What does this fold into?
Amino acid sequence: MTQAELDDAFAQALTQAEALLRAGHADQALKMYQVLLTQIPDHLDAQYYGGIAALYAGQEQLAVELLCAALKLQPNRADIANNLGAAYRQSGQNDLAIEAFQQAIVLDPQGADAYYNLGDTLRDSGNTNDAIEAYQQVIAIDPAYIDAYINLGAVLAAGLNFDDAIKTFEQAISIKPDVAEAYNNLGTVYQKSGNIQSAIKNFKQAVSINPEYADAYLNLGTAHIFAEDYAAALTAFEKTISLAPDHAEAHASQGATLKELKQFERAIDSFQRALTLRPNQPAALRGMGDTYLAHGDLQEAEATYRQALKLEKDNVELMDCLSDVLQKQERYDEAADMYDQLLAIDPNNATAAHFAAALRGRNTDAPPAKFVQDLFNDFAPNFEETLVKELSYDVPSLICQALKKLHEDDIISLPFNRALDLGCGTGLVGQAFKNADQCIVNELHGVDIAEDMIAEAEKKRVYDLLNTVEIIEYLTQHDTSLPYDFIAAADVFVYLGSLEAAFLAVHAYLAESGVFVFSVESLPSGTYALHRTGRYAHHSDYIKSLAAKSGFSVQDCQEIVVRKERSLPIAGLLFILIKN
It folds into this structure.
């Protein structure tokens, strides 16, 4: 062949290779470029496009070699430097990638793609501030560059800058309203910031734009869980799975939702499917263990938690779960040992410290305040269903009955003018006082250490004032010029051993002849004791002696059932004291 014919054949082969590359056949294109480079080793287009083909074909090192060679031939080509940066980044060489992108920007200061790629690499390297600046530069060059808005918003959200993240995603949507990813990311930010309804709205918009968007359905389901709409969550997760049958996280989330719906067998099946798709997921194992526990299968729960702990040996939440299961199996020494292991990792863990003492039979004057706070914050959503329906708790009604009897006997006068509900919880006592046939109180205040309990109490609209504070702290800070006529503490002193400080504080802030009513669990002998349940019990003589020392007279002491535990009644005492 003549030289002209050879040149023509080379040009045709080059065109064919480029066509293959544009059609997505990177492997075939790369082979052709490699053949062409054996003929002309320093051919710029063969090196450059061959490097791009190698990059798409997953041969990052070859891509770097070819693009370096091309840049050496044409050191002023910003596009070559940009693609070299991409090759370095894809091969995990972020520092070299950053240098290449910066070189591309020097060569072409208006190159939005180079700034965008630089932003992605800086983000991946943990340099979020510089990444933000890079994305902002992309937008300054090209205000319609949607992906820059999306990645900028994601970086801002990761840094908990939710307001700016929301504004960024809203800008993207205003420019291009049909980008499902922008709505999905906006929904994620709203969810992280606690605005669940706005999150749900945006996730729904994302899937309406792209009905095949599996991750948006997954996020929608998660938002519905936060909203406690488990039926809607289940529908969303089922849609995710229909679109992506091997989505392990979706199966695990479906399992968690089915657990909340008390469909335990289906929940276990979902967790097992998740673990088949992605074995050794601690979160899925934890969820499956929780489901076994809720279903009452303690042995399977224990085995599952232990399996999860093999994967995350220092996971204190799993240790706490395993300790709980061991307690329920009455294996108290083993449970205490597990709490000791937990405390070795997390010495300030209030729950572990309290139960380690309880299970070892060590008496304490009071539990750590954080234990009580965490316990009731976690318990708040299901508090009333558990306490009233499962544990047959009826102390508020018993208090009302006892007060009415004293009123009928002309010992006290109802209603009380100003009353305080100590440890008001979700407001069961307040509700009983305000809804009773005989009005018990006019003005009612409530205090509780757990903010989530206070939030539930607010919904009942029976309190004139609510405060989130520890009860003794509240009493010692209260204005003595505005005393209470009546103070109640129903099922509160089961979380307090020594009652001296409480009695003195209550006495100080009761009006003359004020009434103090409370319940305790009964202790056969002694003064007070911390039981394995983590609750305290008190002897009646201790209460009576303490009442006398604190300036009270005992008006009434009734034996009651404070609750049931494993279907067995727990003996208690209901005291009514009057300030001397």
User: Anything to note?
Assistant: The CA atoms of residues 57 and 516 lie 79 Å apart.
